[in-house]
């Protein structure tokens, strides 16, 4: 009788462990990179929204009827 399942089991566990490590590394890089990117973009978006609101306010308060 051959014991193929017991011989292949440690190999499968090693491959599964490698996949989990790769998934964890890729996920952490994407999350950290996304956080840094959002931290740099959000102030520019807020400044743009503020400028837009100021231009609307100025247009609405013009003295023309």
Share of helix, binned: over 70%
Distance between the termini: 97 Å
Structural class: mainly alpha
Beta content comes to: under 5%
Number of helices: 1
Overall average pLDDT: 82
Short description:
By secondary structure, this protein is mainly alpha-helical. It has one helix spanning 4-60.
Itemize the secondary structure elements and their pairings.
Blueprint: H1 4-60
Structure write-up:
The chain is mainly alpha-helical and 65 residues long. It is built from one helix and no strands. The longest helix has 57 residues. 0% of the residues are buried. The mean pLDDT is 82.
Give a quick set of tags describing it:
mainly alpha; single chain; 0% strand; 65 residues
């Amino acid at each position: 009788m051959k014991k193929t399942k017991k011989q292949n089991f440690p190999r499968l566990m090693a491959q599964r462990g490698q996949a989990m490590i790769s998934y964890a590394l890729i996920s952490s890089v994407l999350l950290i990179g996304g956080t840094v990117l959002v931290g740099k973009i959000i102030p520019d978006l807020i400044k743009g929204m503020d400028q837009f609101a100021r231009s609307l306010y100025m247009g609405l308060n013009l003295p023309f009827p």
